[in-house]
Design a protein that fits this description.
transmembrane helix, alpha+beta, 56% helix, Bacterial membrane protein YfhO, membrane, five-stranded antiparallel sheet
Protein backbone atom coordinates (compact mmCIF):
# COMPACT_ATOMS: atom_id res chain seq x y z
CA UNK A 1 0.00 0.00 0.00
CA UNK A 2 2.81 2.37 0.97
CA UNK A 3 4.80 1.53 -2.17
CA UNK A 4 1.68 2.09 -4.29
CA UNK A 5 1.14 5.54 -2.74
CA UNK A 6 4.77 6.48 -3.45
CA UNK A 7 4.41 5.31 -7.03
CA UNK A 8 1.25 7.37 -7.53
CA UNK A 9 2.97 10.35 -5.95
CA UNK A 10 5.83 10.09 -8.42
CA UNK A 11 3.38 10.35 -11.29
CA UNK A 12 2.68 13.89 -10.05
CA UNK A 13 6.09 14.75 -8.63
CA UNK A 14 8.07 14.12 -11.81
CA UNK A 15 5.81 16.22 -14.11
CA UNK A 16 5.73 18.92 -11.43
CA UNK A 17 9.53 19.02 -11.40
CA UNK A 18 9.64 19.17 -15.19
CA UNK A 19 7.25 22.13 -15.26
CA UNK A 20 9.34 23.87 -12.58
CA UNK A 21 12.56 23.26 -14.54
CA UNK A 22 11.10 24.82 -17.70
CA UNK A 23 9.81 27.86 -15.82
CA UNK A 24 13.14 28.20 -13.98
CA UNK A 25 14.96 28.11 -17.31
CA UNK A 26 12.80 30.92 -18.70
CA UNK A 27 13.34 33.42 -15.93
CA UNK A 28 14.87 31.63 -12.96
CA UNK A 29 11.82 32.89 -11.04
CA UNK A 30 13.63 36.24 -10.84
CA UNK A 31 12.39 38.13 -13.88
CA UNK A 32 9.46 38.08 -16.29
CA UNK A 33 9.59 38.68 -20.01
CA UNK A 34 6.97 40.74 -21.83
CA UNK A 35 3.87 38.88 -22.85
CA UNK A 36 0.95 40.12 -24.91
CA UNK A 37 -1.31 40.30 -21.87
CA UNK A 38 1.26 40.25 -19.05
CA UNK A 39 0.88 43.89 -18.03
CA UNK A 40 -2.89 43.68 -18.03
CA UNK A 41 -3.09 40.59 -15.84
CA UNK A 42 -0.27 41.78 -13.58
CA UNK A 43 -2.35 44.90 -12.98
CA UNK A 44 -5.42 42.80 -12.18
CA UNK A 45 -3.52 40.62 -9.73
CA UNK A 46 -1.99 43.63 -7.98
CA UNK A 47 -5.45 45.22 -7.76
CA UNK A 48 -6.91 42.20 -5.98
CA UNK A 49 -3.81 41.75 -3.83
CA UNK A 50 -4.03 45.29 -2.49
CA UNK A 51 -7.75 45.00 -1.89
CA UNK A 52 -7.31 41.74 0.03
CA UNK A 53 -4.40 43.24 1.96
CA UNK A 54 -6.68 46.03 3.14
CA UNK A 55 -9.59 43.76 3.96
CA UNK A 56 -11.78 44.13 0.86
CA UNK A 57 -12.84 40.83 -0.71
CA UNK A 58 -14.74 42.25 -3.68
CA UNK A 59 -12.98 44.85 -5.86
CA UNK A 60 -15.52 46.70 -7.98
CA UNK A 61 -13.36 49.29 -9.75
CA UNK A 62 -9.61 49.58 -10.40
CA UNK A 63 -7.89 52.05 -8.10
CA UNK A 64 -4.52 50.39 -7.47
CA UNK A 65 -4.05 49.56 -11.16
CA UNK A 66 -5.33 50.39 -14.67
CA UNK A 67 -4.17 54.01 -14.28
CA UNK A 68 -6.09 54.50 -11.00
CA UNK A 69 -9.00 56.22 -12.77
CA UNK A 70 -11.71 53.91 -11.45
CA UNK A 71 -12.30 51.65 -14.46
CA UNK A 72 -14.77 48.84 -13.96
CA UNK A 73 -12.33 46.13 -15.12
CA UNK A 74 -12.62 44.02 -11.89
CA UNK A 75 -16.36 43.68 -12.47
CA UNK A 76 -16.20 42.94 -16.19
CA UNK A 77 -13.56 40.20 -16.20
CA UNK A 78 -13.88 36.82 -14.43
CA UNK A 79 -11.57 36.71 -11.42
CA UNK A 80 -11.24 33.13 -10.17
CA UNK A 81 -7.54 32.75 -11.18
CA UNK A 82 -6.85 36.37 -10.20
CA UNK A 83 -7.70 35.56 -6.58
CA UNK A 84 -5.18 32.69 -6.69
CA UNK A 85 -2.54 35.03 -8.08
CA UNK A 86 -3.34 37.66 -5.44
CA UNK A 87 -3.02 35.16 -2.59
CA UNK A 88 0.38 34.02 -3.90
CA UNK A 89 1.56 37.64 -3.78
CA UNK A 90 1.30 37.40 0.02
CA UNK A 91 3.61 34.38 0.09
CA UNK A 92 6.31 35.03 -2.52
CA UNK A 93 8.16 38.01 -4.01
CA UNK A 94 5.98 39.46 -6.82
CA UNK A 95 7.73 38.00 -9.87
CA UNK A 96 8.35 34.67 -8.14
CA UNK A 97 4.65 34.57 -7.26
CA UNK A 98 3.79 34.92 -10.96
CA UNK A 99 5.97 31.91 -11.77
CA UNK A 100 4.39 29.90 -8.96
CA UNK A 101 1.02 30.89 -10.43
CA UNK A 102 2.08 29.53 -13.83
CA UNK A 103 3.28 26.32 -12.18
CA UNK A 104 -0.02 25.92 -10.31
CA UNK A 105 -1.91 26.37 -13.58
CA UNK A 106 0.22 23.76 -15.38
CA UNK A 107 -0.24 21.31 -12.51
CA UNK A 108 -3.99 21.94 -12.51
CA UNK A 109 -4.15 21.35 -16.25
CA UNK A 110 -2.05 18.20 -15.98
CA UNK A 111 -3.98 16.79 -13.00
CA UNK A 112 -7.40 17.30 -14.57
CA UNK A 113 -6.25 15.80 -17.89
CA UNK A 114 -4.71 12.84 -16.04
CA UNK A 115 -7.89 12.16 -14.08
CA UNK A 116 -10.13 12.47 -17.15
CA UNK A 117 -7.84 10.13 -19.08
CA UNK A 118 -8.12 7.50 -16.34
CA UNK A 119 -11.91 7.88 -16.38
CA UNK A 120 -11.81 7.16 -20.10
CA UNK A 121 -10.06 3.83 -19.52
CA UNK A 122 -6.36 4.66 -19.69
CA UNK A 123 -4.00 3.07 -17.19
CA UNK A 124 -2.01 5.07 -14.64
CA UNK A 125 1.04 5.18 -16.92
CA UNK A 126 -1.03 5.91 -20.02
CA UNK A 127 -3.08 8.67 -18.40
CA UNK A 128 0.07 10.29 -17.00
CA UNK A 129 1.77 10.23 -20.40
CA UNK A 130 -1.28 11.58 -22.21
CA UNK A 131 -1.71 14.40 -19.68
CA UNK A 132 1.99 15.22 -19.82
CA UNK A 133 2.25 15.54 -23.61
CA UNK A 134 -1.01 17.52 -23.60
CA UNK A 135 0.30 19.99 -21.01
CA UNK A 136 3.75 20.18 -22.63
CA UNK A 137 2.41 20.89 -26.11
CA UNK A 138 4.17 23.93 -27.57
CA UNK A 139 0.98 25.96 -28.21
CA UNK A 140 -0.15 25.35 -24.63
CA UNK A 141 3.17 26.46 -23.13
CA UNK A 142 3.28 29.46 -25.46
CA UNK A 143 -0.02 30.73 -24.13
CA UNK A 144 1.19 30.30 -20.55
CA UNK A 145 4.76 31.60 -20.81
CA UNK A 146 4.96 33.86 -23.85
CA UNK A 147 1.47 35.16 -24.59
CA UNK A 148 0.45 35.21 -20.91
CA UNK A 149 -3.16 34.51 -21.89
CA UNK A 150 -3.99 34.14 -18.22
CA UNK A 151 -7.76 33.69 -18.20
CA UNK A 152 -7.72 31.55 -21.31
CA UNK A 153 -5.21 29.01 -20.06
CA UNK A 154 -7.09 28.57 -16.79
CA UNK A 155 -10.32 28.10 -18.74
CA UNK A 156 -8.57 25.53 -20.94
CA UNK A 157 -7.53 23.58 -17.87
CA UNK A 158 -11.17 22.71 -17.15
CA UNK A 159 -12.26 21.91 -20.70
CA UNK A 160 -11.44 18.16 -20.42
CA UNK A 161 -14.10 17.94 -17.68
CA UNK A 162 -16.69 19.20 -20.15
CA UNK A 163 -15.42 16.78 -22.78
CA UNK A 164 -15.78 13.87 -20.35
CA UNK A 165 -19.25 15.07 -19.32
CA UNK A 166 -20.41 15.18 -22.94
CA UNK A 167 -18.96 11.72 -23.63
CA UNK A 168 -20.88 10.35 -20.64
CA UNK A 169 -23.98 12.16 -21.82
CA UNK A 170 -24.02 9.98 -24.92
CA UNK A 171 -24.33 6.88 -22.71
CA UNK A 172 -27.56 8.20 -21.18
CA UNK A 173 -29.30 8.03 -24.56
CA UNK A 174 -29.22 4.26 -24.98
CA UNK A 175 -32.67 3.60 -23.46
CA UNK A 176 -35.99 5.39 -23.15
CA UNK A 177 -35.70 6.24 -19.46
CA UNK A 178 -35.47 9.88 -18.48
CA UNK A 179 -33.14 9.96 -15.50
CA UNK A 180 -30.63 12.46 -14.20
CA UNK A 181 -27.05 11.20 -14.19
CA UNK A 182 -25.46 12.95 -11.19
CA UNK A 183 -21.85 12.30 -12.27
CA UNK A 184 -22.46 13.63 -15.77
CA UNK A 185 -24.21 16.72 -14.45
CA UNK A 186 -21.47 17.35 -11.89
CA UNK A 187 -18.75 17.13 -14.54
CA UNK A 188 -20.54 19.60 -16.78
CA UNK A 189 -21.27 21.95 -13.88
CA UNK A 190 -17.70 22.01 -12.55
CA UNK A 191 -16.22 22.31 -16.03
CA UNK A 192 -18.51 25.06 -17.29
CA UNK A 193 -18.48 26.99 -14.01
CA UNK A 194 -14.71 27.25 -13.77
CA UNK A 195 -14.44 28.06 -17.47
CA UNK A 196 -16.82 31.00 -17.17
CA UNK A 197 -15.18 32.15 -13.92
CA UNK A 198 -11.87 32.20 -15.79
CA UNK A 199 -12.62 33.53 -19.29
CA UNK A 200 -15.88 34.61 -20.92
CA UNK A 201 -15.00 34.07 -24.59
CA UNK A 202 -13.63 30.59 -23.85
CA UNK A 203 -16.97 29.83 -22.23
CA UNK A 204 -18.79 31.12 -25.32
CA UNK A 205 -16.65 28.90 -27.56
CA UNK A 206 -17.24 25.78 -25.46
CA UNK A 207 -20.98 26.50 -25.32
CA UNK A 208 -21.00 26.76 -29.11
CA UNK A 209 -19.34 23.38 -29.56
CA UNK A 210 -21.59 21.88 -26.89
CA UNK A 211 -24.61 23.13 -28.83
CA UNK A 212 -23.34 21.44 -32.00
CA UNK A 213 -22.72 18.21 -30.07
CA UNK A 214 -26.18 18.41 -28.49
CA UNK A 215 -27.78 18.91 -31.89
CA UNK A 216 -26.03 15.76 -33.07
CA UNK A 217 -27.43 13.79 -30.11
CA UNK A 218 -30.93 15.15 -30.67
CA UNK A 219 -30.86 14.08 -34.31
CA UNK A 220 -29.17 10.68 -34.09
CA UNK A 221 -29.90 9.41 -30.56
CA UNK A 222 -33.11 7.93 -29.18
CA UNK A 223 -33.57 9.51 -25.78
CA UNK A 224 -33.71 13.20 -26.62
CA UNK A 225 -35.61 14.15 -23.47
CA UNK A 226 -32.89 12.66 -21.31
CA UNK A 227 -30.23 14.71 -23.07
CA UNK A 228 -32.22 17.90 -22.59
CA UNK A 229 -33.04 17.08 -18.96
CA UNK A 230 -29.41 16.50 -17.95
CA UNK A 231 -28.14 19.52 -19.84
CA UNK A 232 -30.90 21.76 -18.45
CA UNK A 233 -30.16 20.82 -14.85
CA UNK A 234 -26.43 21.30 -15.44
CA UNK A 235 -27.12 24.71 -17.03
CA UNK A 236 -29.26 25.92 -14.10
CA UNK A 237 -26.70 24.88 -11.49
CA UNK A 238 -23.88 26.42 -13.55
CA UNK A 239 -25.73 29.73 -13.75
CA UNK A 240 -26.33 29.73 -9.98
CA UNK A 241 -22.66 29.02 -9.29
CA UNK A 242 -21.55 31.64 -11.81
CA UNK A 243 -23.83 34.43 -10.59
CA UNK A 244 -20.86 35.63 -8.57
CA UNK A 245 -19.57 37.02 -11.86
CA UNK A 246 -22.58 37.00 -14.18
CA UNK A 247 -24.96 39.21 -12.20
CA UNK A 248 -22.55 42.14 -11.65
CA UNK A 249 -21.38 41.80 -15.25
CA UNK A 250 -24.91 41.89 -16.70
CA UNK A 251 -26.03 44.78 -14.49
CA UNK A 252 -22.96 46.79 -15.47
CA UNK A 253 -23.53 46.10 -19.17
CA UNK A 254 -27.20 47.08 -19.00
CA UNK A 255 -26.61 50.13 -16.82
CA UNK A 256 -23.86 51.79 -18.83
CA UNK A 257 -22.81 52.64 -22.36
CA UNK A 258 -19.26 51.34 -22.42
CA UNK A 259 -16.42 50.73 -24.81
CA UNK A 260 -16.19 46.97 -25.17
CA UNK A 261 -12.94 45.30 -26.27
CA UNK A 262 -12.63 45.33 -30.05
CA UNK A 263 -12.25 42.06 -31.91
CA UNK A 264 -8.75 41.56 -33.30
CA UNK A 265 -8.47 41.50 -37.07
CA UNK A 266 -8.44 38.08 -38.66
CA UNK A 267 -4.82 37.22 -39.38
CA UNK A 268 -2.67 34.15 -39.90
CA UNK A 269 -1.65 34.42 -36.26
CA UNK A 270 -5.29 34.48 -35.12
CA UNK A 271 -6.57 31.79 -37.48
CA UNK A 272 -3.85 30.04 -39.48
CA UNK A 273 -4.06 28.49 -42.90
CA UNK A 274 -2.52 25.04 -43.51
CA UNK A 275 0.83 26.50 -44.55
CA UNK A 276 1.20 28.47 -41.32
CA UNK A 277 -0.21 25.60 -39.27
CA UNK A 278 2.41 23.15 -40.59
CA UNK A 279 5.25 25.69 -40.39
CA UNK A 280 4.47 26.36 -36.74
CA UNK A 281 4.38 22.61 -36.07
CA UNK A 282 7.69 21.60 -37.66
CA UNK A 283 9.83 24.76 -37.57
CA UNK A 284 13.36 24.06 -36.31
CA UNK A 285 16.62 25.87 -35.48
CA UNK A 286 16.54 29.55 -36.40
CA UNK A 287 12.95 29.24 -37.62
CA UNK A 288 11.71 27.72 -34.35
CA UNK A 289 8.32 29.14 -33.49
CA UNK A 290 6.80 29.35 -30.06
CA UNK A 291 3.26 30.02 -31.25
CA UNK A 292 -0.33 29.10 -30.49
CA UNK A 293 -1.60 28.53 -34.04
CA UNK A 294 -0.82 24.80 -34.09
CA UNK A 295 -1.59 21.70 -32.05
CA UNK A 296 2.03 20.66 -31.60
CA UNK A 297 4.05 17.98 -33.32
CA UNK A 298 2.86 14.97 -31.27
CA UNK A 299 -0.84 15.76 -31.68
CA UNK A 300 -0.29 16.39 -35.40
CA UNK A 301 1.53 13.08 -35.90
CA UNK A 302 -1.13 11.25 -33.86
CA UNK A 303 -3.64 11.98 -36.63
CA UNK A 304 -1.54 10.11 -39.18
CA UNK A 305 -0.69 7.37 -36.71
CA UNK A 306 -4.37 6.60 -36.20
CA UNK A 307 -5.13 6.82 -39.93
CA UNK A 308 -2.30 4.42 -40.84
CA UNK A 309 -3.41 1.88 -38.22
CA UNK A 310 -7.13 2.59 -38.67
CA UNK A 311 -8.27 -1.04 -38.70
CA UNK A 312 -6.56 -1.78 -35.39
CA UNK A 313 -8.07 1.18 -33.55
CA UNK A 314 -11.22 1.06 -31.44
CA UNK A 315 -14.27 3.23 -32.01
CA UNK A 316 -13.37 5.85 -29.40
CA UNK A 317 -9.89 6.47 -30.85
CA UNK A 318 -11.30 6.83 -34.34
CA UNK A 319 -14.05 9.21 -33.27
CA UNK A 320 -11.70 11.28 -31.10
CA UNK A 321 -9.29 11.67 -34.01
CA UNK A 322 -11.97 12.63 -36.51
CA UNK A 323 -13.52 15.11 -34.07
CA UNK A 324 -10.05 16.61 -33.52
CA UNK A 325 -9.56 17.10 -37.25
CA UNK A 326 -12.94 18.85 -37.42
CA UNK A 327 -12.06 21.07 -34.47
CA UNK A 328 -8.71 21.99 -36.02
CA UNK A 329 -10.36 22.93 -39.31
CA UNK A 330 -12.94 25.03 -37.46
CA UNK A 331 -10.13 27.10 -35.93
CA UNK A 332 -8.40 27.90 -39.21
CA UNK A 333 -8.92 30.82 -41.56
CA UNK A 334 -10.85 28.77 -44.11
CA UNK A 335 -14.11 29.03 -42.20
CA UNK A 336 -13.47 32.11 -40.11
CA UNK A 337 -12.77 34.39 -43.05
CA UNK A 338 -16.52 34.21 -43.70
CA UNK A 339 -17.51 34.53 -40.04
CA UNK A 340 -15.31 37.44 -38.94
CA UNK A 341 -17.58 39.94 -40.63
CA UNK A 342 -20.58 38.68 -38.65
CA UNK A 343 -21.41 38.98 -34.95
CA UNK A 344 -19.35 35.84 -34.37
CA UNK A 345 -16.30 37.95 -35.13
CA UNK A 346 -16.26 39.03 -31.49
CA UNK A 347 -14.94 35.54 -30.68
CA UNK A 348 -11.41 36.55 -31.59
CA UNK A 349 -8.51 34.15 -31.99
CA UNK A 350 -10.38 31.04 -33.22
CA UNK A 351 -7.20 29.00 -32.68
CA UNK A 352 -8.23 28.80 -28.99
CA UNK A 353 -10.34 25.78 -29.90
CA UNK A 354 -7.16 23.87 -30.77
CA UNK A 355 -6.78 22.99 -27.09
CA UNK A 356 -9.72 20.55 -27.40
CA UNK A 357 -7.99 18.86 -30.33
CA UNK A 358 -4.67 18.75 -28.46
CA UNK A 359 -6.31 16.95 -25.54
CA UNK A 360 -8.19 14.43 -27.69
CA UNK A 361 -5.17 13.76 -29.89
CA UNK A 362 -2.98 13.22 -26.82
CA UNK A 363 -5.39 10.46 -25.86
CA UNK A 364 -5.44 9.13 -29.43
CA UNK A 365 -1.64 8.97 -29.52
CA UNK A 366 -1.54 6.77 -26.43
CA UNK A 367 -4.51 4.62 -27.44
CA UNK A 368 -3.10 4.12 -30.94
CA UNK A 369 0.10 2.73 -29.42
CA UNK A 370 -1.87 0.49 -27.07
CA UNK A 371 -3.88 -1.02 -29.92
CA UNK A 372 -0.83 -1.67 -32.11
CA UNK A 373 1.81 -2.82 -29.60
CA UNK A 374 0.96 -5.98 -27.67
CA UNK A 375 3.93 -6.24 -25.30
CA UNK A 376 3.59 -4.22 -22.10
CA UNK A 377 7.31 -3.49 -21.70
CA UNK A 378 7.54 -2.19 -25.26
CA UNK A 379 4.43 -0.04 -24.85
CA UNK A 380 5.74 1.48 -21.63
CA UNK A 381 9.10 2.12 -23.27
CA UNK A 382 7.40 3.95 -26.13
CA UNK A 383 5.38 6.00 -23.62
CA UNK A 384 8.59 7.08 -21.88
CA UNK A 385 10.23 7.94 -25.21
CA UNK A 386 7.14 9.91 -26.20
CA UNK A 387 7.22 11.87 -22.93
CA UNK A 388 10.94 12.60 -23.32
CA UNK A 389 10.40 13.66 -26.92
CA UNK A 390 7.60 15.97 -25.78
CA UNK A 391 9.91 17.50 -23.19
CA UNK A 392 12.72 17.92 -25.72
CA UNK A 393 10.48 19.63 -28.28
CA UNK A 394 9.12 21.95 -25.62
CA UNK A 395 12.55 22.99 -24.35
CA UNK A 396 13.82 23.44 -27.92
CA UNK A 397 10.96 25.76 -28.82
CA UNK A 398 11.09 27.65 -25.52
CA UNK A 399 14.79 28.33 -26.06
CA UNK A 400 14.98 29.08 -29.79
CA UNK A 401 11.42 30.28 -30.32
CA UNK A 402 11.19 32.56 -27.31
CA UNK A 403 13.94 33.00 -24.71
CA UNK A 404 16.90 33.57 -27.05
CA UNK A 405 14.97 36.00 -29.20
CA UNK A 406 13.37 38.07 -26.48
CA UNK A 407 16.47 38.12 -24.28
CA UNK A 408 18.49 39.64 -27.10
CA UNK A 409 16.35 42.77 -27.18
CA UNK A 410 14.59 42.91 -23.80
CA UNK A 411 15.07 46.02 -21.68
CA UNK A 412 14.51 46.24 -17.94
CA UNK A 413 11.48 48.22 -16.77
CA UNK A 414 13.39 50.41 -14.34
CA UNK A 415 11.70 53.62 -15.46
CA UNK A 416 9.16 55.12 -13.07
CA UNK A 417 6.43 57.18 -14.67
CA UNK A 418 5.71 60.65 -13.33
CA UNK A 419 2.86 63.11 -13.69
CA UNK A 420 5.09 65.35 -15.81
CA UNK A 421 5.87 62.56 -18.21
CA UNK A 422 3.04 60.00 -18.45
CA UNK A 423 4.28 56.94 -20.27
CA UNK A 424 2.86 55.63 -23.50
CA UNK A 425 4.25 52.12 -23.56
CA UNK A 426 3.23 49.42 -26.02
CA UNK A 427 2.59 46.13 -24.19
CA UNK A 428 4.04 44.16 -27.08
CA UNK A 429 7.41 45.90 -26.64
CA UNK A 430 10.22 43.74 -25.34
CA UNK A 431 10.98 44.14 -21.67
CA UNK A 432 11.80 42.15 -18.59
CA UNK A 433 10.82 42.99 -15.06
CA UNK A 434 12.47 41.91 -11.79
CA UNK A 435 11.04 41.52 -8.31
CA UNK A 436 12.29 44.95 -7.25
CA UNK A 437 10.76 46.82 -10.20
CA UNK A 438 7.62 44.71 -10.68
CA UNK A 439 5.50 47.64 -9.48
CA UNK A 440 6.66 49.64 -12.52
CA UNK A 441 4.28 47.55 -14.64
CA UNK A 442 1.45 49.43 -12.92
CA UNK A 443 2.83 52.83 -13.96
CA UNK A 444 2.42 52.73 -17.73
CA UNK A 445 -0.55 54.69 -19.02
CA UNK A 446 -1.04 52.57 -22.14
CA UNK A 447 -1.41 48.83 -21.65
CA UNK A 448 -3.75 46.18 -23.00
CA UNK A 449 -7.03 46.04 -21.13
CA UNK A 450 -6.57 49.25 -19.13
CA UNK A 451 -9.13 51.04 -21.28
CA UNK A 452 -11.59 48.17 -21.63
CA UNK A 453 -15.14 48.88 -20.50
CA UNK A 454 -14.59 52.58 -19.88
CA UNK A 455 -17.60 54.88 -20.40
CA UNK A 456 -18.06 55.57 -24.09
CA UNK A 457 -16.49 58.73 -25.57
CA UNK A 458 -14.40 59.50 -22.48
CA UNK A 459 -11.58 61.95 -23.16
CA UNK A 460 -8.25 61.02 -21.56
CA UNK A 461 -7.52 64.58 -20.50
CA UNK A 462 -4.69 65.81 -18.31
CA UNK A 463 -6.87 65.48 -15.21
CA UNK A 464 -7.19 61.73 -15.71
CA UNK A 465 -3.63 61.20 -16.89
CA UNK A 466 -2.10 63.13 -14.01
CA UNK A 467 -4.77 62.16 -11.46
CA UNK A 468 -5.30 65.81 -10.57
CA UNK A 469 -8.38 67.73 -9.44
CA UNK A 470 -9.81 70.43 -11.76
CA UNK A 471 -11.34 73.69 -10.45
CA UNK A 472 -12.11 76.71 -12.62
CA UNK A 473 -10.63 74.79 -15.58
CA UNK A 474 -7.27 74.62 -13.81
CA UNK A 475 -5.40 71.59 -12.57
CA UNK A 476 -4.67 71.58 -8.85
CA UNK A 477 -1.52 70.03 -7.54
CA UNK A 478 -2.99 66.81 -6.17
CA UNK A 479 -1.65 63.87 -4.22
CA UNK A 480 -3.67 60.78 -5.11
CA UNK A 481 -3.65 57.69 -2.89
CA UNK A 482 -5.33 54.39 -3.71
CA UNK A 483 -7.76 52.73 -1.30
CA UNK A 484 -10.04 49.72 -1.89
CA UNK A 485 -12.68 50.68 -4.47
CA UNK A 486 -11.67 54.31 -4.21
CA UNK A 487 -9.12 57.10 -4.16
CA UNK A 488 -8.07 59.76 -1.67
CA UNK A 489 -7.21 63.14 -3.21
CA UNK A 490 -5.28 65.78 -1.23
CA UNK A 491 -5.17 69.31 -2.60
CA UNK A 492 -5.96 72.94 -1.70
CA UNK A 493 -9.59 73.06 -2.78
CA UNK A 494 -11.30 76.37 -3.45
CA UNK A 495 -14.57 76.97 -1.61
CA UNK A 496 -17.99 76.92 -3.32
CA UNK A 497 -16.47 75.78 -6.60
CA UNK A 498 -17.43 73.12 -9.13
CA UNK A 499 -14.81 70.40 -8.78
CA UNK A 500 -13.98 67.72 -11.36
CA UNK A 501 -12.54 64.55 -9.87
CA UNK A 502 -10.01 62.48 -11.89
CA UNK A 503 -12.17 59.37 -11.72
CA UNK A 504 -14.59 58.06 -14.34
CA UNK A 505 -18.16 57.41 -13.22
CA UNK A 506 -20.56 54.59 -14.06
CA UNK A 507 -24.33 54.91 -13.87
CA UNK A 508 -24.67 51.37 -12.52
CA UNK A 509 -22.58 52.26 -9.45
CA UNK A 510 -23.22 54.51 -6.50
CA UNK A 511 -20.32 56.58 -5.20
CA UNK A 512 -19.60 58.08 -1.83
CA UNK A 513 -17.67 61.37 -1.80
CA UNK A 514 -16.58 62.68 1.60
CA UNK A 515 -14.08 65.22 2.90
CA UNK A 516 -11.81 65.16 5.94
CA UNK A 517 -14.75 66.31 8.08
CA UNK A 518 -16.88 63.33 6.98
CA UNK A 519 -19.18 65.67 5.05
CA UNK A 520 -20.83 63.79 2.20
CA UNK A 521 -21.24 65.46 -1.18
CA UNK A 522 -23.79 64.99 -3.90
CA UNK A 523 -22.17 64.20 -7.22
CA UNK A 524 -23.00 64.03 -10.89
CA UNK A 525 -21.28 62.56 -13.95
CA UNK A 526 -20.27 65.20 -16.50
CA UNK A 527 -20.04 64.95 -20.29
CA UNK A 528 -16.55 63.49 -20.01
CA UNK A 529 -17.91 60.77 -17.71
CA UNK A 530 -15.97 62.12 -14.73
CA UNK A 531 -17.37 62.62 -11.24
CA UNK A 532 -18.17 66.22 -10.37
CA UNK A 533 -19.06 67.86 -7.02
CA UNK A 534 -19.38 71.38 -5.69
CA UNK A 535 -17.37 72.28 -2.62
CA UNK A 536 -19.01 74.11 0.27
CA UNK A 537 -17.98 77.14 2.27
CA UNK A 538 -15.95 74.91 4.58
CA UNK A 539 -12.25 74.42 4.07
CA UNK A 540 -11.47 71.17 2.22
CA UNK A 541 -8.03 69.64 1.79
CA UNK A 542 -8.92 66.00 1.32
CA UNK A 543 -11.58 64.14 -0.64
CA UNK A 544 -12.25 60.41 -0.43
CA UNK A 545 -14.16 58.88 -3.34
CA UNK A 546 -15.39 55.29 -3.09
CA UNK A 547 -17.56 53.13 -5.31
CA UNK A 548 -20.08 51.23 -3.21
CA UNK A 549 -20.34 47.51 -3.76
CA UNK A 550 -23.89 46.99 -5.13
CA UNK A 551 -26.31 44.97 -3.01
CA UNK A 552 -26.90 42.76 -6.05
CA UNK A 553 -23.23 41.79 -5.98
CA UNK A 554 -23.52 40.58 -2.40
CA UNK A 555 -26.69 38.69 -3.32
CA UNK A 556 -24.87 37.01 -6.23
CA UNK A 557 -22.03 35.95 -3.92
CA UNK A 558 -24.46 34.52 -1.37
CA UNK A 559 -26.38 32.53 -4.01
CA UNK A 560 -23.21 31.17 -5.64
CA UNK A 561 -21.56 30.23 -2.34
CA UNK A 562 -24.78 28.65 -1.01
CA UNK A 563 -25.13 26.61 -4.21
CA UNK A 564 -21.53 25.45 -3.90
CA UNK A 565 -22.00 24.44 -0.25
CA UNK A 566 -25.18 22.51 -1.13
CA UNK A 567 -23.35 20.64 -3.90
CA UNK A 568 -20.57 19.68 -1.50
CA UNK A 569 -23.08 18.48 1.13
CA UNK A 570 -25.03 16.41 -1.40
CA UNK A 571 -21.79 15.01 -2.78
CA UNK A 572 -20.59 13.92 0.67
CA UNK A 573 -23.96 12.33 1.44
CA UNK A 574 -23.96 10.38 -1.84
CA UNK A 575 -20.42 9.19 -1.21
CA UNK A 576 -21.34 7.95 2.26
CA UNK A 577 -24.33 6.07 0.86
CA UNK A 578 -22.13 4.22 -1.62
CA UNK A 579 -19.64 3.17 1.08
Amino acid sequence: MHASAIKKGCYYLIPGLVFAIILAYVGRFGFLYAGADLQFHANRIVEFYNNLRQGNLIPVISTFSANQIGSIVPTMYPSFPVYIGAVLQFIFPPVTAMYVLMWVQLMTQFSIAKWVSKELGLSLTESTTAAFIYTMAVPTLSQVIQQWLFGEVWAMSFMPLVVLGLIRLTKTTTNNLVALDKKTILLLVIGFTFIILSHVLSFAIVVGYTAIFTLFLLIFRKNRLNVLANLSVAAVITILLSLIFLLPFIIAMLGNTMVTPAATELSIWAAPDWHEFINSTFAIAGDARFKTNTVGIIAFLAIFGVLVTWRKQDRFTKVATLVSVGVIFSGTSYGWKYLYGTKLGVIQFPHRVFIIAIFLLSLSAILAIRHVINKNWLRNTIYVVLALFSFGVAVFNVKYGFVDRVNAVAVQTNYKSTAKHPVSYTPMANFKVHNEDFKNLMGYWVTYGAFDYLPKNVDFNQSLQKKEIVQDDKLLKTKATSVPNGMVYRAKFAKNTTTVIPMVGYKSLKYEVTDQNKHQYQYKINKNKQLVIKTTAAQVNRLTVRAKTPATTYIAWIISLATGVCLIIFGVRDKRKTI
